[in-house]
From TrEMBL:
<dbReference type="GO" id="GO:1903806">
    <property type="term" value="P:L-isoleucine import across plasma membrane"/>
</dbReference>
<dbReference type="InterPro" id="IPR003593">
    <property type="entry name" value="AAA+_ATPase"/>
</dbReference>
<dbReference type="GO" id="GO:0016887">
    <property type="term" value="F:ATP hydrolysis activity"/>
</dbReference>
<keyword id="KW-0813">Transport</keyword>
<dbReference type="GO" id="GO:0015188">
    <property type="term" value="F:L-isoleucine transmembrane transporter activity"/>
</dbReference>
<protein>
    <submittedName>
        <fullName>ABC transporter ATP-binding protein</fullName>
    </submittedName>
</protein>
<dbReference type="GO" id="GO:0005886">
    <property type="term" value="C:plasma membrane"/>
</dbReference>
<dbReference type="GO" id="GO:0042941">
    <property type="term" value="P:D-alanine transmembrane transport"/>
</dbReference>
<dbReference type="GO" id="GO:0015192">
    <property type="term" value="F:L-phenylalanine transmembrane transporter activity"/>
</dbReference>
<dbReference type="Pfam" id="PF12399">
    <property type="entry name" value="BCA_ABC_TP_C"/>
</dbReference>
<keyword id="KW-0547">Nucleotide-binding</keyword>
<dbReference type="GO" id="GO:1903805">
    <property type="term" value="P:L-valine import across plasma membrane"/>
</dbReference>
<dbReference type="InterPro" id="IPR027417">
    <property type="entry name" value="P-loop_NTPase"/>
</dbReference>
<dbReference type="InterPro" id="IPR032823">
    <property type="entry name" value="BCA_ABC_TP_C"/>
</dbReference>
<dbReference type="Pfam" id="PF00005">
    <property type="entry name" value="ABC_tran"/>
</dbReference>
<feature type="domain" description="ABC transporter">
    <location>
        <begin position="2"/>
        <end position="234"/>
    </location>
</feature>
<dbReference type="GO" id="GO:0015808">
    <property type="term" value="P:L-alanine transport"/>
</dbReference>
Length: 253
């Protein structure tokens, strides 16, 4: 479905994404981890059309979309959320979904919007002001709902669980698993928490200084000493240690 070949994104002298080659198959759930500043969000920006690559190709369902405009990528089926929820202010929750759906599909389907509101547990908030009427969990749910309204085949989820407390996080993870099964989308999931990634994802890719340093099953990747060193500054622990909530949120700073 998605194939990145030697993809690079530069900010002046900084290679934020540095020669990354990676593929995601339809219906696959891929975790994307790495320390702060490793290039994860920049990679999402390149795939979704917000960042212009300095080199390499992005193939989506066979076509090279590296020069394709943002809204066209959305219409091809690439949806995303943002790390910091970005509701459209002054609009209600339902209106947010209508705008997202029109952007992503070129039309409005009220039945589909009702389905998404139900699915994301936002039906009771459909008429609420999106900027002022929502708790953090609901704002995160709205990010997912807006992305779903664009009718994605590939969903890029940028730290949608960050900041949620344990119960909210569990509920959200259940929702993401159901989403994958019910809407049949492939997903790339950026999260720092190893337990979350191991639970949600079949495969994990690790970025470090913009480079892909590992790609494999969660069990294999999180046991790789080089991987663990790169973002925690420690050597690999046992699987019990690494699945007990270890964060991948190390920093090069
Ligand atoms: N618009 C920009 N202009 C200049 N440098 C940028 C820009 N966006 C990102 N960077 C730099 O590119 C590198 C990668 O940043 P990016 O946000 O992609 O990392 P990340 O892995 O998503 O980090 P985090 O886990 O903190 O969200 C960092 O060094 C960052 O400072």
């Amino acid at each position: 479905m998605l194939e990145l070949d030697n993809l690079s994104v530069r900010f002046g002298g900084l290679a934020a994404v540095d020669g990354v080659s990676l593929r995601v198959d339809s219906h696959e759930v891929l975790g994307l981890v790495g320390p702060n500043g490793a290039g994860k969000t920049t990679l999402f920006n390149a795939i979704s059309g917000l960042a212009r690559p300095a080199g390499g190709t992005i193939r989506f369902n066979g076509a090279n979309i590296v020069r394709t405009a943002l809204f066209r990528r959305s219409r091809l089926g690439i949806g995303r959320t943002f790390q910091i929820p970005q509701p459209m202010h002054t609009l209600t929750v339902r209106e947010n979904l209508i705008v997202a759906q029109r952007f992503g599909t070129g039309r409005v389907d009220d039945g589909r919007i009702d389905e998404i509101l139900d699915f994301t547990s936002l039906a009771g908030k459909a008429g609420s002001d999106a900027a002022t009427g929502l708790a953090l969990t609901e704002l995160k749910a709205l990010e997912v709902a807006k992305a779903l309204a664009t009718n994605p085949r590939l969903l890029l989820l940028d730290e949608v669980l960050a900041g949620l407390e344990t119960v909210g996080k569990r509920r959200f993870m259940t929702m993401l698993r159901e989403l994958h099964a019910r809407f049949g989308v492939a997903m790339i999931v950026i999260e720092h928490d190893i337990e979350t990634i191991s639970t949600l994802c079949q495969r994990v890719a690790v970025l470090d200084f913009g480079r892909l340093i590992a790609d494999g099953t969660p069990e294999a990747v999180f046991r790789d000493p080089a991987v663990m060193r790169s973002y925690t500054g420690t050597s690999a622990g046992t699987s019990a240690e690494t699945s007990a909530g270890t964060s991948t949120g190390g920093s090069h700073a």
